[in-house]
Design a protein that fits this description.
The protein is an alpha/beta fold. The protein folds into three domains: about 1-130 and about 450-520, 3-Layer(aba) Sandwich (Rossmann fold); about 175-340, no CATH class; about 520-550, no CATH class. It has 17 helices and 15 strands. It has helices at about 35-45, 75-80, 115-125, 140-150, 150-200, 205-215, 220-235, 240-255, 260-290, 295-310, 320-385, 425-430, 430-450, 465-480, 490-495, 520-535, 540-550; strands at about 1-10, 15-20, 25-30, 60-70, 90-95, 100-105, 110, 125, 390-405, 405-415, 425, 455, 485, 500-510, 510-520. A hairpin with a 2-residue loop joins strand 1 (about 1-10) and strand 2 (about 15-20). The two termini are about 25 Å apart. Belongs to the RecN family. InterPro entries: DNA_recomb/repair_RecN (IPR004604), P-loop_NTPase (IPR027417), Rad50/SbcC_AAA (IPR038729). This is DNA repair protein RecN. May be involved in recombinational repair of damaged DNA. It holds the Pfam family AAA_23.
Amino acid sequence: MLTQLSINNYALIDSLSINFSSGLSIITGETGAGKSILLGALGLVLGNRADLSSLKDTSQKCIVEAKMAIANYNLEDFFMEVDLDYEAETIIRREILPSGKSRAFVNDTPVTLSVLNELRNKLIDVHSQHQTMELSDNAFQFSIIDALAKNKNKIDSYKRGYLQLQQLEKELKELERIQKEANQQYDYNLHLFKELEEANLKVDEQEDLEERLEKLNNIEDIKTNLSEALEISNNEEIGIQNLLNTLENRLSKIASFSKEYQQIAERITSVKIEIDDVVAELEDANENVDFNPNEAEEINDRLQLIYNLQKKHTVNSVEELLSVFEDLSDKVQQVESAEDTINKKKQEIHSVSEKLDKVADLITKSRTVAIPKLTKELENLLADLGMQNARFSIKIKQTIVYFSNGKDNLEFLFSANKGGNFGELKKVASGGELSRIMLAVKKILSENIHLPTIIFDEIDTGVSGEVSNKIAAIMQQMSKFMQVVAITHLPQIAAKGNNHYKVYKEEVKGVTTTNLKPLSKEERVLEIAEMLSGKDYSESALTHAKELLN
């Protein structure tokens, strides 16, 4: 509920602060007095775009502040979601600086306009004549039916499932796209994969083959040098082994004379053992040297295969080829297993769809039950508002398509005249009729959902007499459930308010300013008398005004 509105340096307003209370509050004033300025300031603090031209004094900043009592709105979760401090009396402030920069605050915390607009939708509904176009909006029509059907929890549940379904369908579409692209390369990738699989490459294989081939290509030199090495090692006269035996024998004879000789003798013995091992290995190597032309050919063929594969895949090692092989294996496997992945995703979609269908069925059934009640209430209210022949034809039909609020198509038709054809509201209803239909809708909504504060901006335009009394009565009934503020030109409506405020212009030091003040009981009588017969009101107008107020 709006409890206070403060405006500084906005349009024709220097400084203004007004308190509001619950029930039905009336705002009246002459045409051009500044009622639209009040709505403009309220719209500004609730998130409308700022305009530097709104500043009365362009050297000073404009500040508009609204105090809202929000304890009954269950907004704690919303405040937590947008990281704001929750206060039962929340203060919303909007500033326009002389530079043109705009700032917004909720409980002194800076907020973006998107957050401010979200909060606005939960707190205040400013209803003007142009808003009647919402009546032709399918989503708004559904919201009326769902309010009577008490569908909020069902639709919240449906929306969660609907978002999940959309996500799964998006994932399926992406999987199918990837599979399509992969399929286009599958045959080629499979050929490359099989080729590498048949090659059966091993780590370090290339280095080993190249070393073996190098031996085979130099077999004669190897044989010659091994033979000569063995001759040098074990020749009976000058061979290394015989000389070491002689050396060891000589040193062993003097080893007992000194630790120094003993250590040298031991080292020579150690060298002799090592040389004996080396010679043994040389003999084995010499015996195993054998040129096999078939082996050389096989190694050459194997290496050529490896070289060709490296060239084909533009790599330089077997390790890189093995990495390519793994990558191809993944690509082939991805295609071969994609069908299973896609089928699993389709099963998930089917499962969510089944659950969604059940919730959609419940929504459809409750809507079907609510429609006759809505039709009857609308027609009765409109009859009271002077539209005795107004008729509605509201039908829903469930489809196979998932919409954001269920699976129903809605036909919301209207006829204003007896025996007339039904048609879309925007085509067959006049502006005055749409205003009264919207008032009836808001009345029904106020009794079925927790509507925010509602401000009616001259919804009574084009009506008079008994109809205006009915409009006032409806507003009074609505004010039992919510705060209602009505800007009106009709005395019949003005007299029904719990509180009455007057917008007026005055000239101060040659400058015109707009002000708003609450009217006392006596001032209300004079204001309504003026609304009845003009500034030069008669005694009978005063009497009529008193009668209206009583």
